[in-house]
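Methods — Computational structure assignment.
A single polypeptide chain was analysed. Its primary sequence is given first, followed by the predicted tertiary structure written as structure tokens.
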Amino acid sequence: MRFVVVEGPIGVGKTTLARRLAHSLCGQLLCEGAGDNPFLARFYDNPRAYALGTQLFFLLQRAAQMAELRQGDLFTPVCIADFILDKDRLFARLTLDEDEIRLYEQIYAHLTLNAPKPDLVVYLQAPVPVLLDRIRQRGLRYEQSMDPGYLERLSAEYTHFFYNYDAAPLLIVNAADIDIVNSEQDYQLLLAEVRRVRTGRHFFNPAPL
């Protein structure tokens, strides 16, 4: 297993899990760097005005990250990423109008993306109230004004995307009832599943104690 992706909607804990997996698997961590996007804070305050800038910045950033990953150290045991390249179009469809989508698709078509196929995708799910609570807890100022309706639509887009996803083995995780930060038992159970899954579609939904 060389390339593992952790995905899910905002606030679900994908970067936290990716960091822990990179440590446990002695791998390289690849994060999408949302904090580097100069349009993101303005997008949450005024989505209509800043959607295109936000999305194009992420697209170019992810294209550069994929190029770096392709040219990376062949001897690195594993790379753990907290994003899948396909998510870029998911967010574009959600935030851009028709004219912006056409411009976005033209730019997308001219980029060399050619992302490696993941050996495993870990998709974290949680209800919107859980996501909102975790967003409040992590305390990023620009996220505090996030529209719950936007988060609802985003979660629905993720559900639809992964319902049809078959490009790589998929582990679907109920992230609402586990605590991978404060419960070592929860994390170790999930880590065992990550190490076990090699093909097909699997679900991780441990019964609460």
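Note: The chain has a mean pLDDT of 90.
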